[in-house]
Amino acid sequence: MLDGLALLIGRQPDMEVVASATNVEQAVAEYARVRPDITLMDLQLPGLNGVEGIKQIRRLASDARIVVLTMYQGDEDIYRSLEAGAATYLLKDSLSEELVTVIRQVHEGNRPVTPAVEAQLESRGSSRRSRHARSRSFVSSPRACATRRSR
């Protein structure tokens, strides 16, 4: 999976993979070292989980832009990731074009939500969704940190 992501991102003229990690501790250290524009984070990592990684990265940089890319699709996983500070959440089976588009949108400061994720959030109920909207004031596949460099 990681090689495929690196290849996909590397094909983009405005993107490059600048670091990778195999666990949360490495991901946080690599984030601190390279300060990528966008971090792709998996939730299922050895040791600490990806949500904890999101929290740690956001403690380092409150403006960190993190895209969750995972196989988990439960509404609680989505909600916890967004509450921790992820900009958006994609399932690993998303089309490659969708991933590239989402990376660009997040780089521009947007928080795109795919229809699949929106449906999961809808199932949580409107009160929780409203709380999420107010609360938000690497490539990790499980392994990497990706960035789009401003030129």
- CATH architecture descriptor: 3-Layer(aba) Sandwich
- Count of domain modules: 1
Q: Which runs of at least 5 residues are low in confidence (pLDDT < 50)? A: 126-151
| Physical arrangement of strands within the biggest beta sheet | 2-3-4
CATH homologous superfamily identity: Response regulator
Q: In what range is the share of β-strand residues?
A: 15-25%
Molecular shape: globular
Instruction: Tell me the name of the CATH class.
Output: Alpha Beta
For the terminal residues, how far apart are their CA atoms?
A: 28 Å
- Main β-sheet: number of strands, strand sense, barrel status? 3 strands, parallel
Q: Kindly name the structural category.
A: alpha/beta
DSSP strand count: 5
Characterise the protein shown here.
By secondary structure, the protein is α/β, with parallel strands linked by helices. The chain has a single domain (2-148), classed as Rossmann fold (3-Layer(aba) Sandwich), CATH 3.40.50. The protein has helices spanning 2-10, 24-34, 50-60, 75-84, 96-107, 115-122, 126-135; strands at residues 15-20, 39-41, 66-70, 88-91, 144-148. The strands form 2 sheets. A 3-stranded parallel sheet has the order 2-3-4, with helices on both faces. It has a two-stranded antiparallel ribbon with strand order 1-5. Mean pLDDT is 78; it is low at 126-151.
